[in-house]
Amino acid sequence: MNIRQKLTIYIFLFVACAMGLQAKADNTLSMNDVTCMRSGETQIVVPVAMTNSDEITAIQCDITLPSIASMVDNSGVYDIWLDETRKANNHNLSATASGGSFRVVISSPTGKAFKGNSGNVFYFRIDVNTLATAGNYSLSLSNIILSTVSGDRITPDDVNATLTLNCLRGDANNDGAVNVADYDVTRRFLSKLSFTGDFFADAADCNQDGTIDAADLVCIVLKSKGIEPSSAATGSNVMTLNDISCLRGQGTIINEVPVLLSNSDAISAIQCDLTIPSVVTMQVNGENYDISLERKSSDHIMTTQLSNVKYRIVISSPSAASIGGNSGPIFKFNVAVNTSSVCTQSMMLSNVVLSTTSGQRIKLDNIDANVVVRFIKGDANSDYNVDVADYVMTCNDILGKPQNSTFYSDAADVDGDGEINVIDLVKIVRISLGLE
Ligand SMILES: [Ca+2]
Ligand SMILES: [Ca+2]
Ligand SMILES: [Ca+2]
Ligand SMILES: [Ca+2]
Hints:
28 strands; 436 residues; Immunoglobulin-like
């Protein structure tokens, strides 16, 4: 055999091999991705196509559905059917559920071939659980066996497709429209208030950032008006909480605490969680907490709800109006301070989110302030003056003499060295004379 003959054989083998691969690649099943709108039709038809260069008479495969879908059945018969244009007159299909999937067997009792070489060969109808979270889910065909009319087995690769469950962004109650009802149910959810009817968190997360907050309230209002919210905020927006300072022994003192907002952006919605320490008690005003909204448009609403030792405060407008202005208290709350003993405790605003009127989300760091119950140095009898009476009591203490009224040793220890002695006595005199 010369080189030319050998080369001819190799070329022949190569072509034969390529044709063989081609033949295998040309006998496949396929499925297109399918989508379902949560507020629309929940039953969808999934077509399965076959591309076949060989004459195929029988098909076997297992359909696996995602957990959010079930196979529709009519009185115990699965809703799976053959394509009329491709089946031979006596092709029949049967399906059974087995091990979490559905086995489909299609054959012809006389071994007839499917018509044509491409296109849909069978269909199945699934029912999508629209309570599920919107997203992508997978469907598959596995264990696929095709038989040629001469009984040759073809084993195509598994087939995967995506079932996409979509929701209308902002349609929190899933009625197919975005309007004030969605704003209201989301506001109640965010405010931790009770509500009736459906609530879909994935749709309420209108700006799709994975959390439901004040920015979503504005986003829903804007989308109800056909306006797409903006994303990034650029301004400087600062919130501050004032300290509370009281003197010991004054009984229960009511303090009005302002929460200040300095904002360069036009702010429409605000949320925060207020944590107050044990030394203070939130005051109530009728049935509500004594928290007042200070800056607002005509339709701004504030809700305050105690949940898990935090007061959830949500301020928003159903028209996405601005709270107005650029500085000053946004809200105030009244607390009673128990002044029976000295302490320093912290209060905090956490989970603070602002939204501009165009839906830009601004997340602020936690804001801390102190509640301090203090005494006056040298005021050994706690009458809020430092004078000769304090001098006498401190002198008695040093000499070990009995006292006529309560002696406050922490106030008498003016230099704070843990000991009451003549140095403290001198300092009391100096304070009473205005020298310290
Ligand atoms: Ca709706
Ligand atoms: Ca969001
Ligand atoms: Ca005093
Ligand atoms: Ca001392």
